[in-house]
Each structure stands twice: as C-alpha cells, then as structure tokens.
Amino acid sequence: MSEGATMTDPAADSADRPSGAAAAP
Q: Are 19 and 7 in contact (CB under 8 A)?
C-alpha cells in the first residue's frame, strides 16, 4: 500500500489499487 500511496495519489490508490498496481505499470 505504501508503494502506491507514495508514488500515486493516496486517495485514488487506497480506493482503486491498494497494492499500488497503478504505479507499477
């Protein structure tokens, strides 16, 4: 969770991709 929240928006990350998949690709 910290990965996605740090790279992308914490609100959108936790709501859509808590694993941070949005920031990986």
A: no
Whole-angstrom distance, CA of residue 11 vs CA of residue 25:
18
For the chain, give every domain's residue range.
1-25
pTM, 2 dp: 0.14
Tokens of 7: 């790279």
Residues of the chain with pLDDT under 70: 1-25
Distance in angstroms (rounded) separating the CA atoms of residues 17 and 24 = 11
Q: How far apart are CA 5 and CA 21, in angstroms?
A: 10
